[in-house]
Amino acid sequence: MLPFFLSPVSLYAIYVRRCFAASGLSQQTLQLDNETTLHFWGPNPKFSQATQKKPSLVLIHGFGPVAMWQWRNQVQFFSPRFNVYVPDLVFFGDSTTTSAERSEVFQAASVAKLMEKAGVERFSVIGTSYGGFVAYHVARMWPERVEKVVIASSGVNMRRGDNEKLLRRAKLEKIEHLMLPATAVQLQTLIGLAMSRRVDVIPRFLLNDFVQKLYSDKRKEKMELLKGLTLGRDDTPNLSPLPNKEVLIVWGDKDQIFPLEMATELKELLGPKTRLEVIKNTSHVPQVENPIQFNNIVESFLLLSKYLGCQHGNPRFGLNRRLLHIRRFGSIYCSITCPERPFRFFSENMGLLCSRNKHYNEADNEENAQTAEIERRIEQETKAEKHIQKLLLLGAGESGKSTIFKQIKLLFQTGFDEAELKSYISVIHANVYQTIKILYDGSKELAQNNRETYEISSENKEIGEKLSKIGGRLDYPRLTKELAQDIETLWKDAAIQETYARGNELQVPDCANYFMENLQRLADANYIPTKEDVLYARVRTTGVVEIQFSPVGENKKSGEVYRLFDVGGQRNERRKWIHLFEGVTAVIFCAAVSEYDQTLFEDESKNRMMETKELFDWVLKQPCFEKTSFMLFLNKFDIFEKKVLNVPLNVCEWFKDYQPVSTGKQEIEHAYEFVKKKFEELYFQSTTPDRVDRVFKIYRTTALDQKLVKKTFKLVDETLRRRNLFEAGVSYRICLDLCLKLKFSVEEGLSANSGRIIGHRKT
Ligand SMILES: Nc1nc2c(ncn2[C@@H]2O[C@H](COP(=O)(O)OP(=O)(O)O)[C@@H](O)[C@H]2O)c(=O)[nH]1
Ligand SMILES: [Mg+2]
Q: How far apart are CA 173 and CA 167, in angstroms?
């Protein structure tokens, strides 16, 4: 064994410890009961004031070296915004027990006890690999204490045969040869599977040093932990869903320990609030292989929606892109230089962690040069940020915002890869079950007054009851051919068809007909959703999602970069909007014109069009939008044109003065123009004279129609570019005028980016 001072692992451990200490954490040990003691890194009690204001986050390590080695890149990134707790699980590092318990459930109970003893009532939890098993159990057993869950590279849905498959991939005989490597060759095999990049050139002495320093301690107990796992014992996944918990699954697309298919299945098993993010070109340790992407994904999941809900911290901070970028650079910096400086950097820019610069050495020229370089890059980034135009998709629930968002992803970004497409399977199957339940329950209700029309035929009643029960569950089963056949039979029942005709009274989703006509395909065992299926899929948006894009011409970019934000539209989601209102170039307001005869999902006494009218009026009057352009998308025109010939527009109070004049196409145009005029009038009524210079455009859209959306976005892009040119012209004229009056030099007088006056008086 190498002596301490010659051991690279021991020397690197000093550095990692310093990283943790510089992040404001200290090593602590807590006796949980008379059997178990846990060692952990937690907020340094010296900084208790900062601790009070931040949410708490627990990072649970996987099977391998102690926690400190697995979360270095995360601790530095998350500690400015969270109270970070990094426990060593029982039998790792200095954590130990005299209990005979060896399961991951015991580990979960120990983590929960630790947090209780540390006085933390609520926390979010991230677990990687084995730590993901533990995180899952913590969330399952203490749902009231766990806010959000991140499961990274962790096959919680593991089956009995999965270990054998893994061993075949590793060409090893026993699982401990892989998880507890005892030789350099075994460690090399583990690294080969856990990392996507090929790392063949690690010197043998270094591998041996790793094995001895990081894997030799408490081997017997760790083997017992592997044997004591409760997950993965059966032929089917042995887990219950977390239906009410927001869960993020993060996975490397090249994971060879737990292959990506496990992630997509896990997403379905955990429930509707589970999201999957795949990090490309990483294997089992994306938090190590691509820490920047990993951290950003996790941070947006943990903070963004919470932030917008304003439960923690200062709302000004969360959506300030500049600060987010500073953080990103901070994290790059952390990985290339010593740990103290980034926090000087954070402290100057963020007003946090001011006391952590004790070791800062003013005379260190090299570091000063690095700081200057980073500041220069931030400056550049900040300038680039100014050119990014912020677009906000607003509108009531089901107006088509997320469909537009998906179209943008398809049209101007990478589209959906197979994993993403597969992640929609559960949504689509849920849409099917929900639809058939709404229709069956609806027909029963309508039959009370009109049995002849709405009573389900006796041979289909049993099917109806069964499907209604499934539709009421939180965990929908995968759609099988048999279930699809049952649904199809019921869908074709005359009473269900009559009920569907009254769908506007029953909250039947707009995707109903499309999915019902494709049931057999959706139930195929190898079903992968198509682009169209994804566009039709309806999932209620919660929180905020964003995408950056540039509308492309045939082969070239337009030059403008947009960042588009999609939000939830239901009433309870709207309180989150306001935090996005600053610095918006344009609001894209979606109004579903077909909904004039429907009531709200969240309030069945309220007509959807009346709600849209009030909402549009409210948005227009927001002081933040004084100079914001408004692009009104009168959406769902395809449904409108079919409906308007059967259901008169004047069923809606806002349109009660509507008089049909004709039939067919002409009538459709007439009705559409009437609705458009109503919105125009509303816009001008709600826009005070001092806001007349903002741009207002109306577009007729069908969000499902890709060509139309592409055309519409090109028009939006053109309008916004023209608007920018106009604004630049106005700035220049104002500036010129002022400069002449004050005898400024024109070149100095105009800051090219912002149009602010920054010149000096010439004497
Ligand atoms: N027929 C039709 N359906 C649409 C249109 N736009 C959206 N939808 C569907 O309406 C449902 C709700 O749309 P979504 O984009 O989720 O609405 P959001 O709540 O505003 O985000 C989804 O099933 C969409 O497929 C449209 O223009 N025509
Ligand atoms: Mg949505």
A: 6
User: Which is more confident, 669 or 46?
Assistant: 669
d(CA 361, CA 150): 38
Q: Which residues pair with 125 in a beta bridge?
A: 58, 149
Q: Where are the beta strands (DSSP E) in 336-493?
A: 388-395
Q: How far apart are the first and last CA of the chain?
A: 76
Residue among 439, 485, 440 at smallest CA distance from 464: 440
Q: In terms of Cα–Cα distance, which of 588, 574, 586 is closest to 624?
A: 586
Pocket test of ligand 1: the residue of 398, 531, 572, 712 to mutate, having most ligand atoms within 8 Å of its CB, is 398
Residue 18 has pLDDT above 50, yes or no: yes
Distance 182 CA to ligand 1 centre (A): 56
What's the whole-number average pLDDT of the chain?
Answer: 82
Model-wide pTM > 0.85: no
**β-bridge mates for residue 587, sequence order:** 392, 630
Q: Identify whether the C-beta of residue 137 lies closer than 8 Å to the C-beta of residue 105.
A: yes
Q: Can you tell me whether residue 399 is helix, strand or coil?
A: coil
Q: Which atom of ligand 1 is nearest to the CA of 566?
A: 21
Handedness of CA 607, 609, 611, 617 (dihedral sign): negative
- By alpha-carbon position, which residue is closest to atom 19 of ligand 1? 398
C-alpha triplet 557, 632, 532: angle, nearest 5°: 65
Residues 608, 613, 616: CA angle, nearest 5 degrees: 120
Cα distance between residue 478 and residue 522, in whole Å = 10
> Which alpha helices (DSSP H) does 118-182 contain, by range?
130-141, 160-170, 175-179
The average pLDDT across 165-170 equals: 88
**Closest ligand to the CA of 636:** 1
Q: How far is CA 221 from the centre of its chain?
A: 38
What are the E-state strand segments in 280-419?
388-395
Q: Give the nearest ligand 1 atom to 395 CA.
A: 20
Find where tokens 């707790």 sit. Answer: 85
Contacts of 214 (CB under 8 A, 6+ apart): 9, 64, 65, 66, 69
**Distance, CA 715 to ligand 2 centroid (Å)?**
23
> Tokens standing for 53?
């204001």
Q: How close is the Cα of 570 to the center of ligand 2, in Å? A: 9
Could you read off the pLDDT of 178-211 as tens digits, one per residue? Answer: 899 999 888 988 998 899 877 667 788 888 888 8
For residue 578, CA distances in Å to 308, 425, 581, 592, 624 come to: 8, 33, 5, 22, 9
CB atoms within 10 A of CB 428: 21
* Interstrand relation of 544-549 and 388-395 (parallel, antiparallel or unpaired): unpaired
C-alpha–C-alpha distance, residues 386 and 320, integer Å: 12
Which ligand is closest to the CA of 706, given by its number?
1
Q: Summarize pLDDT for 305-337 with one digit per residue, the tens.
A: 433 322 332 222 222 333 333 333 333 222 222
In sequence order, what E strands does 651-741 have?
Answer: 696-700
Distance from C-alpha of 120 to C-alpha of 114, rounded to nearest angstrom: 9
Pocket of ligand 1 (CB under 6 A): 395, 397-403, 509-511, 535-536, 538, 541, 569, 590, 635-636, 638-639, 702-704
How far apart are alpha carbons 151 and 266 in whole angstroms? 10
Phi, psi for residue 327 in degrees, rounded to 5: -65, -40
What mean pLDDT comes out for the span 343-371?
A: 40
Work out the average pLDDT over 130-151. Answer: 95
Catalytic residues: 398, 403, 538, 566, 570
What percentage of the chain has pLDDT greater than the value 70? 80
